[in-house]
């Protein structure tokens, strides 16, 4: 019998199609492997093919030269641009403003043929530190309301270049899906005076049905109302609304944790394409008692089709309890 489950944060319903329960080998998927062979603008020696870097970690060389281990550059074809004023206007019942914001690319490694899961632990931590550094710099611009950091890994997940990279987009508005998550958290807090994410952590640690693994700083779970097969969340044990406020020891542990999650997925799902998104509070807000930053990782194993777009429901053929078990039993790297 299929199972209808309600996300306690957003109120979104999902269908867990238990009668279709799928093991990892049952999915038809595109394995992500780097091939090389073409001139890559992100490779060392091609620094002139990108806009000038806004951040780099390097052991040698000067700005926009070789010798770097990580670079952050503006996107050559940005969705939004830093220059200009918002110029908010109404056009009858419609609202508009100029496309002011920022769009940056985090080049995670000089090595074209590697992936984030294959990088050394310190380098994964450096990628996370670069996210923090860029958010804290961009949030000084009071025009910007929300900064999303995300990774598209593999063509099926939306990546147009195979060199390992992530992206950052700073927006002059808070996106609707983000606001829905924050509002849902606030409703819960207004009723119970507790953070819903903290309560989810306590319940998952008590039942242990959907725990993948845990560290001193983080708990990795398959969420109760998973929208997608093998959807996985990384939840900090310590309450905090802003990813960019994370201290150095926690960030180093997050590097190990994220690397471990991705390696487990590579082992169980044979190097799947995936999207990873940092969910964090709007940058111009202070600390929020009701919201808890976290990372969501979504392997691209199924396609969103007409039913999902038309209803807002998602159909997940793999119960999160099974997904957590497969990932848990994959062991630690």
Question: What integer value in Å does the Rg equal?
Answer: 20 Å
H-E order:
EEEEEEEHEEHHEEEHEEHEH
Shape type: globular
Indicate the percent of residues in helices: 25-40%
CATH architecture, by name, is: 2-Layer Sandwich
The CATH superfamily is known as: HIT-like
Q: Name the beta content range.
A: 15-25%
Mean pLDDT across residues: 92
* Uncertain regions spanning at least 5 consecutive residues: none
Largest β sheet strand count, sense and barrel closure: 10 strands, antiparallel
- Regarding CATH, which class? Alpha Beta
Provide an overview of this structure.
- 26% of the residues lie in helices and 22% in strands.
- The strands form 3 sheets. A 10-stranded antiparallel beta sheet has the order 3-4-7-9-8-13-14-12-11-10, sandwiched between helices. It has a 3-stranded mixed beta sheet with strand order 1-2-15.
- The protein has helices at residues 121-138, 176-192, 196-207, 248-269, 306-311, 320-329; strands spanning 3-6, 13-16, 55-58, 68-74, 89-91, 94-96, 102-107, 146-153, 165-171, 211-214, 218-221, 232-236, 274-279, 294-299, 314-316.
- The chain has one domain: HIT family, subunit A (2-Layer Sandwich).
- The protein is an alpha+beta fold and 333 residues long.
- It is globular and about 60 Å long.
- The protein starts with a strand and ends with a helix.
- Strand 10 (211-214) and strand 11 form a beta hairpin.
- The chain contains 6 helices and 15 strands.
- Helix 1 (121-138) crosses helix 4.
Short description:
This protein is of the alpha+beta class and 333 residues long. The chain is 26% helix and 22% strand. It is built from 6 helices and 15 strands.
């Amino acid at each position: 019998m299929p199972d209808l489950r309600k996300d306690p944060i957003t109120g979104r319903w999902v269908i867990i199609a238990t009668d279709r329960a799928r093991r990892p080998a049952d999915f038809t998927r595109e394995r992500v492997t780097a091939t090389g062979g073409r001139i890559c603008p992100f490779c060392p020696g091609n620094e002139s093919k990108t806009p000038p870097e806004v951040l780099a970690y390097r052991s040698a060389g000067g700005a926009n030269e070789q010798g770097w281990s990580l670079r952050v550059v503006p996107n050559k074809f940005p969705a939004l641009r830093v220059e200009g004023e918002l110029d908010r206007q109404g056009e009858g019942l419609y609202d508009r403003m100029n496309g002011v914001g920022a769009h940056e690319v985090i080049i995670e490694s000089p090595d074209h043929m590697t992936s984030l899961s294959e990088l050394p632990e310190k380098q994964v931590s450096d990628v996370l530190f670069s996210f923090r550094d860029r958010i804290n710099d961009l949030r000084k611009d009071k025009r910007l309301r929300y900064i999303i950091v995300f990774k598209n890994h593999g063509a099926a997940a939306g990546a147009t270049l195979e060199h390992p990279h992530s992206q950052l987009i700073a927006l002059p508005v808070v996106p609707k899906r983000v606001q829905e998550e924050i509002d849902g958290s606030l409703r819960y807090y207004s009723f119970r005076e507790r953070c819903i994410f903290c309560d989810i952590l306590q319940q998952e640690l008590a039942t242990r049905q959907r725990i993948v693994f845990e560290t001193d700083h983080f708990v990795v779970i398959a969420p109760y109302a998973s929208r997608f097969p093998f959807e996985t969340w990384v939840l900090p044990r310590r309450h905090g609304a802003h990813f960019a406020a994370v201290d150095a020891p926690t960030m180093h542990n997050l590097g190990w944790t994220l690397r471990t999650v991705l390696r487990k997925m590579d082992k169980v799902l044979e190097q799947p394409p995936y999207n990873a998104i940092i969910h964090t509070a709007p940058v111009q807000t202070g600390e929020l008692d009701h919201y808890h930053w976290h990372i969501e990782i979504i392997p691209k194993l199924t396609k969103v089709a007409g039913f999902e777009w038309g209803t807002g429901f998602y159909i997940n053929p793999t119960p999160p309890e099974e997904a957590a078990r497969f990932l848990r039993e994959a062991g630690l790297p």
